[in-house]
Amino acid sequence: MSDDDDWFERALRERRDDTDEAAADPETVELDDENHDHADRDGRSDDESASGSPANDSDGAAAPADSMENAGDDPFSTNFAEAFKNAPMPDIGDSDDEFGGSAGSGMGDDFHFDSNATRESLQFDDDDFESDIDRIDIGIEGLDEMILGGVPERSLMVTIGSAGTGKTTFGLQFLYEALKNGDNAVYITLEESRSRILDTADEKGWQFSEYEADGNLAIVDLDPVEMANSLSSIRNDLPRLVDEFDADRLVLDSVSLLEMMYDHPSKRRSEVFDFTRSLKDAGVTTMLTSEADQTNPYVSRHGIVEYLSDAVFVLQYVRPDDFRETRLAIEIQKIRDANHSRETKPYELTSEGISVYRQANIF
Q1: Is residue 54 predicted with pLDDT exceeding 80?
Q2: Which domain, by its residues, includes 270?
Q3: Start-to-end C-alpha separation, the chain
């Protein structure tokens, strides 16, 4: 077996060890005692990730054999970031607020609770909704109420946001919803160490360490450069990982670091397209996280993943005209095969995760 396959074996080792040695060793099983005792990567900058990339020429990182090299095979014939930039901006109400600035939380005068729901753009009646598609909840209070009937199972979703908007918390909370209901989950991180992810979730009371020890959760931390070099192997092995681990939900945090490994736009689009297609083929409900474009909070950094995804959630900063305090707001940009509110709603990052204020409006 090649080194490229090690990531997959590490992810499954806990499940095999749990079966073979449960009676002898009740302690928590590590995914890989040798490869996961490295330092946290939470301080890695974009420049450091880029400098460590082996892709310095027009071909980007080492390409898998099945990549689409010819322009005629490229599933994208336009520059999506440019197309989206020229599209009309979504209407978020009567506000003239700007977006950007530093993180903030808390409810203030910029949020208005409308008891008569006079500003609700959509009124849903659950009794009128019928569907043969199996659906799930995201697991975030307030947000699930904005989605009529839930998100279709086996969807590929993406959460777009700037630094500090809670993308990682969003992904962890999404997995916790499955774990607490007895399902299995996989978390692949390119930004943090395995221990940091466990600590973050445990601090919020989500007992990820216990779920991992019980064999319900697999956390795989990969270096972005390692993943780019092994992408062909990872892409081919993902369906096997999902099947053998019996995973119901998977999170990749974040796809932006993977995209940065490819300098050539055509190569980047083809690789991301192939990778997301492998996730869909695996039949697992998947959540990707992505950095927002620096000039437009509604668009991912490279303007690709939102077009490949079945659902898009946008996390953004909202700054009032008087600059008193920066707020956080969420909107659902799209969900295929599901009705949903198109309003922008405030949310908070708390010690218990993300909470969306469904009955509040932003001015």
Answers
A1: no
A2: 3-18+95-125+133-362
A3: 58
Q: How many angstroms separate the CA atoms of 75 and 198, rounded?
A: 38
* Number of domains the chain contains: 1
CATH code of the domain covering residue 197: 3.40.50.300
- Asked if 160 and 90 touch (Cβ cutoff 8 Å), the reply is no
For residue 84, give Cα distances in angstroms to 11, 126, 224, 300: 37, 33, 27, 10
Amino acid letter for position 117: A
Contacts for 296 with CB less than 8 Å, ≥ 6 apart: 84, 85
Name which of 189, 164, 332 is nearest 253 in CA terms: 189
- The DSSP result for 76-89, as a single string, is --S-HHHHHHTSPP
What pLDDT is recorded for position 5? 54
What's the chain's average pLDDT?
Answer: 75
Amino acid present at 316: Q
Q: Does 79 fall in a domain?
A: no
Inside any domain, residue 274: yes
Checking DSSP bridges between strand 184-189 and strand 247-253, what pairing results, if any? parallel
Q: Is residue 228 part of a domain?
A: yes
* Reported pTM: 0.66
Position 280 in a domain:
yes
Residue 164 and residue 274: Cα distance in Å, rounded? 29
Q: Which residues pair with 161 in a beta bridge?
A: 291, 315
| Contact by Cβ (8 Å): 298, 159 | no
